[in-house]
Amino acid sequence: MKLFRALKKELSGLVDFIFPPVCPLCGKGSVDVAGVSFCRNCLADFSPLVSPFCTLCALPFVGPQESDHYCGACITNPPPFSSVTSFGIYEGLLKEAVQTFKYRDKFHLGRPLGRLVAEKVAERHRFCPFDLILPVPLHRRRLQERTYNQALLLAETIGRHLAVPVNSALLRRLRPTPPQQGLSERERLRNLKGVFGLAEKIEGLRVLLVDDVMTTGATARECSQVLLRGGASGVEVAVVARAARHF
Ligand SMILES: [Zn+2]
Ligand SMILES: [Zn+2]
Questions:
Q1: pLDDT higher for 7 or 34?
Q2: From ligand 1's centre to the CA of 85, what distance in Å?
Q3: If you measure from the C-alpha of residue 74 to the centroid of ligand 2, how many angstroms do you get, rounded to a whole number?
Q4: What CATH code would you report for 50-242?
């Protein structure tokens, strides 16, 4: 068995030498280990979320603001979650990567994207105060169409990095929601009322809720409310990308 493992390692080293692993996004740039990271060029083209942004919902600020602070929406209507950690801004190549991951069957992008989020979460929450990681659920019907839940793939990578258990059965989407694109936050929230449910109580647990993108924040608000009503002691949110403007 030992010999077999050593041989396998040697052989994979040889394969990597003959066919160097390439970037899972552009298919051109080289990466050290296949499937877990993007090439340097793609990484440089992603828009990272950098200050100034809203310290609560991670909304990037454009204009003269210099430091991080709460955005108007978080002041007038405080969200139920305690923070949002986003790797980047939902634009350009990062938007393309997320859409390819989500809609074009490129589920293997979940690992490198999840890793970027995990590193950001570890940086922000140094002591990793989470008991549980929950992905935003897809409705059964949507899952059958897409065959995978992109939020769960991200959550699994994040869970492995942070050594926190992931549960994809606790938070459920009880009925399908019509597409949310083009709707205001209020309309989205109305659409989402009663959509999510908890399979069991999660008394006193601190939850990291994972999704691919945050646009208006309506989904994160609704899920967080359900989790808090179910006994969660706090909910933090992590996403790959945050939309700069509310659509
Ligand atoms: Zn690349
Ligand atoms: Zn905000």
A1: 34
A2: 24
A3: 4
A4: 3.40.50.2020
Distance from Cα 3 to the centre of ligand 2, integer Å: 55
pLDDT digits (tens, 9 = 90+) for 28-82: 998 888 788 999 999 999 999 999 999 999 999 887 767 889 999 999 999 999 9
Segment 112-131 shows an average pLDDT of: 94
Please tell me the distance between residue 43's alpha carbon and the centre of ligand 1 in angstroms: 7
Ligand with smallest separation from the Cα of 109: 1
Residues 6+ apart with CB under 8 A from 31: 21, 22, 23, 24, 37, 38, 39
Closest ligand, as measured to the CA of 69: 2
Ligand 2 centre distance from Cα of residue 188 (Å): 17
**Domain boundaries defined on the chain:** 50-242
| Gap from CA of 175 to ligand 2 centroid (Å) | 28
Per-residue pLDDT of 165-213, as tens digits, reads 999 999 999 988 877 777 887 888 888 888 999 999 999 999 999 999 9
Task: Taking residues 140-157, report their average pLDDT.
Answer: 90
